[in-house]
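1st attempt posting a full record on here, be nice pls
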Amino acid sequence: MIKRRDKNSMGSIRRRTYIVDKKLQYRMLGYNAIYFFITLAALSLALFTPLIFEISDPSLSPRQQAEVAGKILYLHSYLWPALLLVLVVLGFHSVLVSNKIAGPLYRFRTTFQRIIEGDISGSVKIRKGDLLINEQTKIDEMISMLKSKIGQIQAEGAALGELLAKIQGQELNAEQKAALALLQEHYERLKKETEFFKTA
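the predicted structure (as C-alpha cells):
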C-alpha cells in the first residue's frame, strides 16, 4: 500500500493512502501497463525492424554493417532506460490519478451504506483535486431532497398523531371506534417507519 506523510495545519504528521481500492486501482494500473507495452512493441518494430532488415542485406560492406550495428547498439543503450523511466513515471501517475477516482468512490459507498441504515443527515465530502465532482453534487442533491421529503412526511405524521389524540377524546359509536383503531394502527406503523430515518 502506497502512503505519503503530510503535515496538517497543526503540524502533526498524517498518512495519505494512495491505494484505497485495490481491485479498481490495480485494474486501472494493469490497463495502463497493457497500453504501454502495446505502444512499446509498436515503437520497437518501427525502430528496429528496418535496421534488422538493413543489416541482413548481404550486399552491405562490413563497414556499412558496422554502422548499422552501431545504430542498433545506440538505440539499445538509450531507448530502453528511457522507456523504463517512462514506465515508472506512468505507473506512479496512474496510481495518483486512480486515487482521485477511487477515493470519491469509497466515500460514495460509505454514504450509500449510511443511507441504507437510515442516516441521511450528512453529505458527501471529497478532497480538493479529486475527480467525480459532478457525481458528488448529484448525490448531495439526492440526499437533500430525501431529507426534505422525509422531514415533511415526519411533520405530517406528527400532525396526524395530534389529530388522532383529539379524536380519541371524543365520544364515538362502535363503528367509529373501530375505524379510529384501524387508523391508529396505520399511524403507528407510519411513525415507526419514518423514525427509521435520521435527518439531523
